[in-house]
Amino acid sequence: MVETLASIQAIAYVHQTNETFGHLKPKTQTEYKGYILFTLTAFRDTCIIDFEFENLTESPWFNNDILDLISEYTKKLPKDKYFGVFKWNGYYKKFKNGNFKFKGNFSEIKISTAVE
């Protein structure tokens, strides 16, 4: 019974998200050129500072895809890497089945801190 209720709620959530934000959904099979600027905090959290992609606005789908990309990248960083500012440049593409692909490169932006 609980599982059935959870399934119904999930379906309702997806429907409501599409109704509310569907016009912002990335077009499938379209490559969007852009960048993402983000930081890895001292607590190993990530925070998006800025992003821009040609002809693409923020949406729940795009936001989730960006967070997945950043999370995968920061997991691979050495454990002693406790802080950093990074930039990703490249292309983003959404597929009909809901999967996505980021094609590009990461770079670290060198900054100076008061604590060294």
Mean pLDDT: 78
CATH superfamily: ATP-grasp fold, B domain
How many distinct beta strands?
A: 4
Strands ordered across the widest β-sheet:
2-1-3-4
Extract low-pLDDT stretches: none
Report what the structure shows.
It is a single chain. This protein has a four-stranded antiparallel sheet with strand order 2-1-3-4. It is globular, with a radius of gyration of 17 Å. The protein is built from two helices and four strands, in the order αββαββ. It has one domain: 2-Layer Sandwich (D-amino Acid Aminotransferase, Chain A, domain 1), CATH 3.30.470.20. The mean pLDDT is 78. Strand 1 (31-40) and strand 2 form a beta hairpin. Helices cover 31% and strands 34% of the residues. It is α+β, with helices and mostly antiparallel strands and 116 residues long.
Features:
single chain; 116 residues; alpha+beta; D-amino Acid Aminotransferase, Chain A, domain 1; 4-stranded antiparallel sheet; 2 helices; 31% helix; globular
List the helices and strands and how they pair.
Layout: H1 2-21, E1 31-40, E2 46-53, H2 60-75, E3 84-94, E4 100-109
Antiparallel strand pairs: 1-2, 1-3, 3-4
Outline of the structure:
By secondary structure, this protein is α+β, with helices and mostly antiparallel strands. The protein has helices at 2-21, 60-75; strands at 31-40, 46-53, 84-94, 100-109.
